[in-house]
Design goal:
Its EC number is 2.7.9.1. The chain has about 600 residues and is of the alpha/beta class. It folds into four domains: about 220 residues, 2-Layer Sandwich (Dna Ligase, domain 1), CATH 3.30.1490; about 100 residues, 2-Layer Sandwich (D-amino Acid Aminotransferase, Chain A, domain 1); about 120 residues, Glucose Oxidase, domain 1 (3-Layer(bba) Sandwich), CATH 3.50.30; about 100 residues, no CATH class. The chain contains 22 helices and 26 strands. The strands form six sheets. An eight-stranded mixed β-sheet has the order 14-21-20-16-17-18-19-15. A five-stranded antiparallel β-sheet has the order 1-2-7-5-6. Strands 10-9-8-11-12 form a five-stranded antiparallel β-sheet. α12 packs across α14, α14 packs antiparallel against α22 and α20 packs parallel to α22. The radius of gyration is 26 Å and the shape is globular. The two termini are about 40 Å apart.
């Protein structure tokens, strides 16, 4: 069976022809990939990025014809599952998920449990034999819809029941949550489109140089319930450790919960061993699927899954966001495993990641003498010192501060980008704070305990996110030498074979290897710099100085035809050069 393409939507029913990731987004593409491999995935269809572009082109309204295509897509889900959207017997509920072509974890909105109303709650209660479960699903849906679609600013997660959530939303936004499932679906799709241009999404794209006009696809997928009973749960599995790159499963599992509970960080989940001990067959099936996805994807994978009444469902698989240390370790491991060539491996690591990896580390003796104010799980390693602030806006206004939160949400991303480090009171190593911290390579310690924020605000602390400790005051650090790191040394050797420029150590021993004069960028007066980079005279063969070790300086030297750069740290310069030559189409 092939994918069925309408104007604005695409089915993902085990297609033979691979859909374009630019058209369907990373999330829907991963569903196609997993279903094509025969893995168990809840059925879904996708509203394409073209529909998102049309939504903005026509004054933020759904394009003509999309409503009819949404009906057609839902009918396919109903046929496959024998359920009815808005039905009073065997009701179908769906999730409405964002999915950009470029992975942006936690940046855009997802609405779960959509299709709920009073009649559907009664039908779900009868089917499950558990009115409390159905009421909880309804309460969760009202919270998602009220916050993400209607824009309610009140805290809804801890409200006790549906009636209270509805009343709070209506009082705040003067608009009720609709009972019509189709009205819910149309508004949710529009809300996900709109979230692609939220402050947090735009801040993330600026941080990584992602174009602002990519938009998002919207995946509409049949719900499975990790909160159904004690044989149900939800979790996240990394096929390789995203902190240090070790070849081992890494993740967490939350019994009787939904995925949002894990990602939000409101609840601290159990280690994956919890699933292995209680449902060994499910755990074994999960690991088998993970190995297959790791091999097929030729990279470490971040896998979201749900267990519903003892049955495993995979919801997403994507290349895992990882720390700089893990990026280097995974690249080397994939070469050893014969998955990548050395030339491919060096293109999996960025110059910025290596620069982050070479950040100073805490002196062991100094750490043993420094008072420990808090401890938690090391989610994204590194060391940073700064004054603790309690809001993302404060962190954005004072770059280099330490952001401390009860738990982070997508609304905190602009502050996380500016912060030197992030601390949370609750949440595990697959929570929003942990995943985004690794994506940004910001030191992050999670799950430090209730009351930590109040005890730290205004204090200068040193966050050692390698050990998970928060120390009082400024703790001395020492520099890291790339030549003494086995991972970086091997990567440097590989990069030398790929880069078209020679990069030598900037020390006295390099002199005899050079022919002719060397332009010293650090000797150029500031007023002679253009965009922070000195002009390179025609015919210059070699340059030196910290300015030419920056990405802009390296690119300027290459564009001028320089064939040798002297740098205190060689690997970041080599990786910048490789990326630049690839962009220029001069890959050897």
């Amino acid at each position: 069976m092939t994918a069925v393409r309408a104007r604005w939507t695409l089915t993902l029913d085990e297609p033979v022809v691979e859909p374009s990731k630019d058209l369907v987004g990373g999330k829907a593409w991963s569903l196609w990939r997993m279903r094509s491999l025969g893995l168990r995935v809840p059925p879904a269809f996708v509203v394409t990025t073209e529909a998102c572009a049309a939504y903005y082109a026509h004054g933020q309204t759904l394009p003509d014809g999309l409503a009819d295509e949404l009906v057609a897509g839902v009918r396919l889900l109903e046929q496959e599952l024998g359920r009815t959207f808005g039905g009073t017997e065997r009701p179908l509920l769906v999730s409405v998920r964002s999915g950009a072509a470029v992975s942006m974890p936690g940046m855009m909105d997802t609405i779960l449990d959509l299709g709920m109303n009073d009649e559907v709650e009664a039908a779900l209660a009868a089917e499950a034999g558990d009115p409390a479960f159905a009421a909880e699903v309804h309460r969760r849906f009202c919270g998602f819809y009220g916050r993400l679609v209607l824009g309610c600013t009140e805290e809804l997660d801890d409200l006790p029941d549906v009636a209270t959530v509805r009343r709070t939303v209506a009082d705040d936004v003067a608009e009720p949550i609709p009972a019509d499932p189709w009205a819910q679906l149309h508004a949710a799709v529009a809300a996900v489109f709109a979230s692609s241009r939220s402050r947090r999404a735009m801040a993330y794209r600026r941080r990584w140089g992602i174009p602002d006009d990519l938009g998002t696809a919207v995946t509409v997928q049949a719900m499975v319930f990790g909160n159904l009973d004690q044989q149900s749960g939800t979790g996240v599995l990394f096929t390789r450790n995203p902190v240090d790159g070790a070849r081992e499963p890494y993740g967490e599992y939350l019994p009787c919960g939904q995925g949002e509970d894990v990602v939000s960080g409101r609840v601290t989940p159990q280690p994956l061993t919890h699933l292995a001990e209680r449902q060994p067959a499910v755990h074994a099936e999960l690991l088998t699927a993970a190995e297959r996805l790791d091999a097929e994807g030729r990279d470490a994978q971040d896998i979201e899954f749900t267990v519903q009444h003892g049955e495993l469902f995979l919801l997403q698989s994507r290349p895992a966001k990882r720390t700089a240390r893990a990026a280097v370790g995974i690249a080397r491991a994939l070469v050893r495993e014969g998955v990548l060539t050395p030339a491919e491996a060096v293109r999996r690591v960025t110059a910025e990641q290596v620069i982050n990896l070479l950040r100073p580390v805490i002196d062991g003796d100094a750490a043993s003498r420094a008072a420990v104010l808090a401890t938690g799980a090391a989610a994204s390693p590194g060391v940073a010192t700064g004054v603790v602030v309690a809001t993302a806006d404060e962190a954005a206004a004072t770059p280099g501060s330490v952001l401390a939160r009860h738990t982070t949400s997508p609304e905190d991303v602009h502050g996380m980008i500016a912060a030197a480090a992030v601390i949370t009171e609750v949440g595990g190593t697959t929570s929003h704070a942990a995943v985004v911290g690794r994506a940004l390579d910001v030191p992050c310690v999670v799950g430090c305990g209730e009351g930590v924020v109040a005890s730290l605000v205004g204090r200068t602390v040193t966050v050692d996110a390698t050990t998970g400790r928060v120390h009082d005051g400024e703790v001395p650090t020492h520099a890291v030498d790339e030549r003494h790191d086995a991972d970086l040394a091997e990567l440097t050797t590989w990069a030398e074979d790929v880069a078209t420029v020679r990069v030598l150590p900037d020390d006295a021993d390099a002199g005899p290897e050079l022919d002719g004069p060397v332009v010293d960028g650090d000797a150029v007066a500031p007023e002679e710099l253009e965009d922070g980079v000195p002009a390179v005279p025609p015919g210059t063969r070699a340059v030196r100085g910290a300015v030419f070790s920056t990405p802009a300086g390296t690119r300027a030297a290459l564009d001028a035809g320089v064939d040798t750069i002297l740098a205190a740290r060689r690997l970041p310069v080599l990786l910048t050069a490789i990326a630049h030559q690839d962009t220029a189409g001069s890959t050897p």
